[in-house]
Amino acid sequence: MGKIDILQGTLDLLILQALQWGPQHGHGIGQSIRTKSDDLLQIEHGSLYPALHRLHREGWIEAEWGVTENKQRAKFYRLTTTGKKQLVHEEAKWKLFVKTMARTMRPQN
Question: What's the average model confidence in pLDDT over 74-83?
Fold first, then answer.
């Protein structure tokens, strides 16, 4: 089938979702999304890192330097309390979007 382009606004949800299980560095977040989507969603660094910076400015995630499993220095991101609340909000918006799309695509009666 090939790669799927991510709809604008869904990257925040994917990042917040990836971080709900604990802190991760940027590359790990991208890998997590890729793995969970069976390689259909591949987030380019040019999209991922600006999104991480934006979420940090919003106060939804925090960042601190750490060392990866490969002994490389990297910034690790984690959800804040506000970010956890935002994740719930983003998931609700996504579910409404999916429900609306399904209804829109049904044939007229």
Answer: 97
